[in-house]
């Protein structure tokens, strides 16, 4: 049985009697039977008799994979080459290719533990948090701007990104990561890091209405964002589908949706200034006259409509632009119980069409029938987190383990990572999913040991080419059973960072406000205010890792967009990987790729001298993570001799599939 939040405060019976209360409802045995809502099993690890099977299935992951393969008459692919494996695990764990020195050292290490030493080194690198932080930022719909028409920048929102990276690098337990994101302000009101973590709740897009953020429609949208994020990010269910009516496919009632929303009823945005009292007073003095004008305009706007309101809004924007640069602040939330929003069922999600009032309660399908709701709780979001991270909750650990698996194998055990419901895909290896989830919890919710377990497995270390490929594709065309490693194209950030690394321009500076890099003027002119794109000074800043680039909703960098970076509006469960002509055009003609080609050519000349053969070898080590094949060497030398352009050669290797794809 799941642990339920205890009531810390009680409301009077008179207050309850003032409005009707939604019935609690029951759930049928069929509704409760869906695999994701069932308690986790304790599966037995398959055993094998043949020596070759025992040798391959050295751990639990391999045993579960091999058992499924054998059931379908398939067998695993041979192991990948050392060069291929090193590039694969390096890009998977830290998002950067191995250096030539690291490649040579790994090839020279003939010890049985050579690969494990590489894995340990990568997991201890600060680059690990930067790469895996991006995975979580996708899920958290992280952005440093509001979106919609104004797309105003969010002062201090970047601190959430830095908190994510630091948390992962320190291997903070995942249950603690959830707690700090949902209730950092409740558990440690004076802790800057935890307050920044609580900014998770404000990461969704925000529609601003004439400078007034407390109108009913805006408040309803804010609460909707907070509620939907819980379902998608932590529970892996499409909770948002129950906002307007009972879920059409899953046993999630509309009342469930609003009872989860109840935990956020008293949650309001808060910017905590980090300025000293002297800095604050100086800022107020500079802003006094402008703020007086703003206050006057807001009074004038009340009750105005049409052209008159539009004119006043334009004047308000002009005055806002005149305010001094905002002082450093934490982008977070706080509880205001005196301003708690009454939570009602809303017909069709319309905030003007209120139905029964509801209190707070977790998802009913995971509770005994008629479990009472709570009407007031001292730290409501902390109590919600207690339920989410309870070891008996069947969803939370499964969902996160699946995300880690997806990050290494390209597809989750459940391929719909944000949807474990009936319309999502069934797990390809349900026993393995439960085994890994159990291990995750037993290990204190630590992620690094699970990463190591995954990448140390023989399933992960397979080649992407199989001798039984044609036969296997007839049985399992999607490779859900893992009869080989799935080749994949690098994600947008991996590709840009790999270009910077190969060229020698990559800056490893960590943290701080989002970097604004130069883009075409035409794109900037589409913004509500072109002044929102004030380019960060210093070329070294422009060469930082992609995770530190400004995440702005209304202007995505062309290079990132063409390689399927998400749009930052919704939680992104899994990156798409499309193939189309603009990608080739961007790689051949784009400003970034040509700037990187110039730098790579200079590096080849600097480090390999005038020897063409050495230049070719170094180029392939930097881009493909290996020496060129005999054919590649012949073609490259012939190209250099015929064209005499090291820059064009550098651009060519940055367009090779061996660079763009992970084998």
Verbal overview:
The protein has helices at 13-17, 29-32, 51-56, 60-71, 82-94, 100-108, 114-123, 126-139, 158-169, 174-187, 192-197, 216-235, 254-261, 277-301, 306-322, 380-388, 396-409, 430-442, 448-456, 469-475, 492-503, 521-524, 539-542, 558-562, 581-589, 591-608, 612-623, 630-643, 646-653, 657-660; strands at residues 267-273, 329-335, 344-346, 354-357, 488-489, 661-662. With 663 residues, the protein is mainly α. It folds into 3 domains: 24-34 and 156-161 and 173-388, no CATH class; 51-130 and 398-489, no CATH class; 492-505 and 519-533 and 557-662, no CATH class. The strands form 3 sheets. The chain has a two-stranded antiparallel ribbon with strand order 1-2. Strands 3-4 form a two-stranded antiparallel ribbon. A two-stranded antiparallel sheet has the order 5-6. The protein is globular. 41% of the residues are buried.
| Number of β-strand runs | 6
Proportion of residues in β-strands: under 5%
Distance between the termini: 45 Å
Describe the global form.
globular
- Integer average pLDDT: 93
Structural class label: mainly alpha
Uncertain runs with pLDDT below 50, 5 residues or more? 1-18
Number of domains: 3
The largest β sheet comes out as:
2 strands, antiparallel
* Strand numbers in spatial order across the main sheet: 1-2
Number of helices: 30
Q: Which descriptors apply to this entry?
A:
single chain, 663 residues, mainly alpha, 3 domains, two-stranded antiparallel ribbon, 30 helices
